[in-house]
User: Which sequence fits this backbone?
């Protein structure tokens, strides 16, 4: 008897772990990460074989329509994490800790990180901030929860630092970013996201720290790359960041499909006969007799 291999594709793949990230850096293999915010896209990303899926607080902007990531809460992200977990069994799953879920105190950070692991069923968390947040990253990591750091442009605090600007444009800021990375490495993070950092500085950071660097708008020399899924698919209508590559234009495809559906409903051409359910002849004749009586 034949087997549907698509149903077993995930079980036949090796589960990606924290240790694999370090091994990939040592071997010079690029790490592939994407964001996902639902069950269907996590299935697809996992089936393709991406190394890691981040349930990012960017969910607030690209799905909920917030202007920034700041309003996003732990309560909003946990069901999203659960949905992604149900779809992905191969990729390393990371929950993005939103604004004020970790900055208040180490105890608060540990508690919220624990929720991402226990309730959200994630395997690691991401925390924004450099040396100023290194003690928080260390406290969480010391509890046994793997932490992915994040420096450069940190969207949760971008408005406090002049908006969404390229980081590391001069030697002074470049050295500060290198120190941020070193502080996070010392704190015990298993990797560091570098966002919108000049390529030169990102390259030095990647060569300096022992943990993998994951770039987003930080050039060609990071150990891996991450993009927001909606940027990859062309599903976010407001803007396309310079660093993002749009691999398809699903917004136009979806718009065309919905437009065609709208037209057919209004003109009475949908549904067609093949889309309807019918009674058998005997039951229909009974219905006809009742109508006549």
Assistant:
């Amino acid at each position: 008897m034949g087997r549907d291999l698509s149903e077993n594709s995930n079980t036949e793949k090796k589960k990606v772990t924290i240790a694999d990230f370090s091994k990939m850096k040592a071997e010079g293999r690029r790490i592939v990460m994407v964001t996902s915010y639902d069950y269907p896209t996590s299935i697809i990303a996992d089936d393709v074989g991406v190394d890691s899926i981040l349930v990012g607080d960017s969910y607030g902007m690209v799905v909920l329509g917030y202007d920034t990531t700041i309003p996003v809460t732990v309560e909003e992200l946990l069901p999203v994490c659960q949905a992604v977990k149900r779809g992905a069994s191969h990729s390393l799953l990371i929950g993005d800790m939103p604004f004020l879920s970790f900055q208040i105190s180490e105890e608060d950070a540990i508690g919220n990180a624990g929720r991402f692991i226990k309730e959200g069923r994630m395997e690691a968390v991401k925390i924004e901030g450099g040396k100023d947040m290194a003690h928080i990253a260390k406290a969480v990591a010391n509890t046994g929860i793997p932490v992915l750091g994040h420096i450069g442009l940190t969207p949760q605090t971008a408005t406090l630092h002049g908006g969404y600007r390229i980081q590391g444009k001069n030697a002074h800021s470049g050295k500060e970013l290198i120190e941020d990375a070193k502080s996070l490495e010392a704190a015990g993070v298993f990797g560091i996201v570098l966002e919108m950092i000049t390529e030169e500085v990102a390259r030095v950071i990647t060569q300096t720290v022992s943990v993998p660097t994951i770039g987003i708008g930080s050039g060609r020399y990071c150990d891996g790359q991450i993009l927001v899924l909606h940027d990859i698919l062309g599903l976010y209508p407001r803007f396309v960041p310079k660093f993002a590559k749009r691999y398809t234009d699903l917004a136009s495809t979806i718009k065309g499909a919905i437009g065609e559906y709208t037209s057919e409903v209004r003109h009475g051409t949908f549904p067609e006969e093949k889309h309807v359910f019918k009674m058998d002849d005997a039951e229909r004749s009974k219905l006809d007799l009742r109508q006549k009586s």
In short: The mean pLDDT is 92. Residues 5-248 form a domain with the TIM Barrel fold (CATH 3.20.20.60). DSSP finds eleven helices and eight strands in the chain.
